[in-house]
Amino acid sequence: QEKSPRLSAALFGEDCEISRDQLYELLKYAALGKCHNATQPSWCHIYHQSHLAGVVVIVLHEMSQLHFYKFYLQFKHLRKLFRHRFTLTPSANFLASLYGEGANLKPQNTAQGLTSTSSECIPEISDLECDPIIRKYGEKKQGLTSYTLTLEEQKKNDYPIKGSPGCKGFVDTECDQQRTDSSPLFGLDCEMCLTAKGNEVTRVSLVDAQGQCLLNELVKPESTIVNYRTRFSGITKKMLLPVNTRLPDIQTRLKKLLPHDAVLVGHSLNADLQALEMIHPSVIDTSLLFARNEGRRFKLKFLAKAVLGKEIQCEQKLGHDPAEDARAALELAQFFIEQGPAKVAELNLEKLLTTEKLAEVSQNKAALQPQGCRVQKQLNEPLHLPKTCFLDCLQVTGQKPLLLGRQELDSSGPCQSNPSTSNKQILQRALEDVPLSTFSIIQFSLGPEYIASHLLAGLCEKVRSKLTDMLTIYAGPFEESFCLKSVKKEFGRCGPIQSLTVVTETYQPYVCIQYEVLEAAQLAVESLNGAEVAGSYIKELLFPQAMLDCDVLIRELELDVENEGVIYVAGLKKSLTETDLQEEFSQLKDLETLFLPKDLQSGKHRNCCFLKFQKSQSAVDALDVINGWTMKGSKLRSRNALASGHLCRWIWQMNHSNGKQGGDISYKKMGPLSDSEQDLTKKVKKLDQHIKKLYRCLQSNTLCIVLFPGANSMHGSQSGLGLMGIKDDRGRSAC
């Protein structure tokens, strides 16, 4: 029986922002497969790619996430067709980025992986001063003790700390000797499997400063393994059958191997030490050492290639090799210490990250010499790629790519079509030609009159106002001398509060509470109406009057396929780490993923989380179990999720950008829609119908991706949005 293609993507929580290079990576693999040296995307996985009937990309020109959520109800078919969604970084020339048009790559320097020999890749002095590495460490070389994490940094990043409540029973390495710049470095890495208890160690590797492997042991967990995570851990059931080594054995061996002044090095080493249940006072974390803006982190695989010129975690291997990862982290720390922050900043890692995949494209392109591609012969000359990249490869193999909309593709490449072409005409042409093509890009547009900056600003303000309404509730009445702190504590158990203000214009005081997540406001209304808070019974718990028309929107968000099988849990203690929560919730049936949101400014965990289950019924059952559950002395509350994926992050950004914030909340009734907005609403509805018709005509097993490219304007950058899925035999988007 022929295998059907399937798509999986870990687009949950904060892992749902995709760059145009990552999107290109997906399209290239979907279109070409392994036979043309394309590789599986790093952020999602296509199973049985060779059985794809085709790839169709629908681009909604000049539209962004703002349009999708402003017209969420109008995009009725679009939001029901696609389960996988992701935030898309806006691009100046979006269409070109889809197939590599005008790419201009610098050659690789073999000594430093992706580092270019061109002076254009070396930042200016002023750029260096703004580099997060320079801001954190300065420009001068320093000894290794300058790069070990302080106690505060360890606490902030969930490292096991002696005496902390979550580390009861943890083993201390007893490496308590004073560290110096000549203290020995040791690389450490673990692989974990998911057990009934949570993440447990199944393999441990330790390497010394010379890269010699001192320990590389399999470990049998105490609890039953529920998921081997073989794709990442490399661990199989067969491998662990003869193993008798347990965690205490490993803890004893590590204590013997490490000298009293040892400095441990690893990438996100906190997770390894948590899983080992060990405490070590002196660590260098390479995920924090190579600092980035906004708390983001480089992946170890990228750093190894960009800085060391080494390929690790190769797809050909089954899972990660912890000895290889430990050695890579160690060498990265040694490179940083020996070269100093200024030299590391000159590598311009952010720029290299965006060009890494394009460098791979340039290598593949060299195989297409008969098509006029120029092979680079000298490293000191830039490589200029032809206008079309993997579309060229498709044509070489006899496949016919199709581009409809603002541009059309003929045998000589993209050419301009009539700009007055309507969406209806594009749809008619697509219905005829898309089934005949293996790769299609279809562009629809609202028209220039609907993307004017003043109209965009108006939409932005209305969306922000609507979000504020949905995040805000009024509670009361309270006694004159009520305790505001008690009110904040009780309502804070429903989720993170952005602002809390007392309304004194009424006969008795009321409190206006603005939350940071949609679920918290709904949960407060559902669970605290009639409850006793600060000595008063809440007689009225309501949304602003402007919120009355949002009931339908809330209901539709609950039913959204993206929130299927996902629940929201509030009332968590902020001291609980992700590892703690995985352990606490491990008894829940079919739990797939846990997402613990962070404040994007402080980086601290919020007092809520999202749980995603493999089956919808398991999520329903979990709600019954969790409501009223006491965890570490705190009573939990839960409900169905409304904004568990990329929407959660987007709401936070919208709520903190240019709008009124905590303590300065004013409500005004939004006026009726203008003629242009009414026309736009009708246009969007029609566009949704077009997408539905086009999707219906696609063959089964076709990968379909709908893109809102995003926009950069005088009113700021508007993130894009992507929706994707593989059409199954029933005409729906398969996971």
From TrEMBL:
For this record, the Gene Ontology CC terms, alphabetical, are:
nucleus
For whether the record's keyword set contains RNA-binding, the answer is: yes
MF GO annotations: exonuclease activity; RNA binding
Output the superkingdom of the source species: Eukaryota
What phylogenetic lineage does the species belong to? Answer: Eukaryota, Metazoa, Chordata, Craniata, Vertebrata
Pfam short name (any one): RNase_T
Entry keyword set: Exonuclease, Hydrolase, Nuclease, RNA-binding
RRM domain span: 565-643
> Can you name this protein?
Putative RNA exonuclease NEF-sp
